[in-house]
Amino acid sequence: MRPKPALFFAILLAVFLSSCKTGAQPAATLPAESMKGYELYSWQEGGRWKFSLLVGTNREKTLDEIQSADAALDGVDALRSALQAISQGQTITWSAKGPLALPPEEIVQQVEQVCRDRGLTCNIAR
After folding, report:
1. Is position 19 within any domain?
2. Which residue(s) pair with 91 in the sheet?
3. Residue 32, pLDDT score
4. Do residues 125 and 95 make contact, with C-beta atoms less than 8 angstroms apart?
5. What total number of domains does the chain contain?
6. What is the DSSP string of the chain?
7. Domain encompassing residue 37
8. 46-104, pLDDT tens digit by residue?
9. Which of 7, 34, 56, 82 lies deepest, with the highest CB count within 10 Å?
10. Are the beta carbons of 92 and 62 closer than 8 angstroms?
11. Residue 119, pLDDT score
């Protein structure tokens, strides 16, 4: 059986991305495709913006899940790297309710641009 090029590319991309991050950044564990898209959350902690990019589901995530050390991405560059691993055509739904918040408009526009460049649909619940 011949391996599929998409699987080979996904593995190669994961290896490359894991070698580029700092030791403090958790490993990306997102699959390249999700039937329900992805959920993006943001909050400010210690003067820095943090993000979580989670596989979409039919249930609401708890704050503990969203802000867990395994899920948290520290800064826009870490989020950009995580978005690069998602397949073109996927939908990202960005929510900021309760103690979560959207970053300044400049950062929102940067994230939207990364999504456009990757062929991702970014829906922001404002």
Report:
1. no
2. 121
3. 63
4. yes
5. 1
6. -PPPHHHHHHHHHHHHHHHHS-TTSPPP---S--TT-EEEEEEEETTEEEEEEEE--SSPPPHHHHT-TTTEEESHHHHHHHHHTSPTT-EEEEE--TT-----HHHHHHHHHHHHHHT-EEEEE-
7. 30-125
8. 999 999 999 999 999 999 999 999 999 999 999 999 999 999 999 999 999 889 999 99
9. 82
10. no
11. 97
Domain annotation covers residue 100 = yes
Residues 3-52 pLDDT 10s: 555 554 555 445 444 544 433 334 345 666 788 899 999 999 999 999 99
**CB-count exposure of residue 82 (10 Å: 0-12, 13-18, 19+):** buried
Residue 11 located in a structural domain = no
Is position 74 within any domain?
yes
Tell me the whole-structure pTM to 2 decimals: 0.74
Residue 41 phi/psi, 5-degree rounding, is -130, 155
First to last CA, the chain: 48
Which residues, at least 6 apart from 18, have a Cβ–Cβ distance to it below 8 Å?
27, 28
Q: Which residue type does 72 have?
A: A
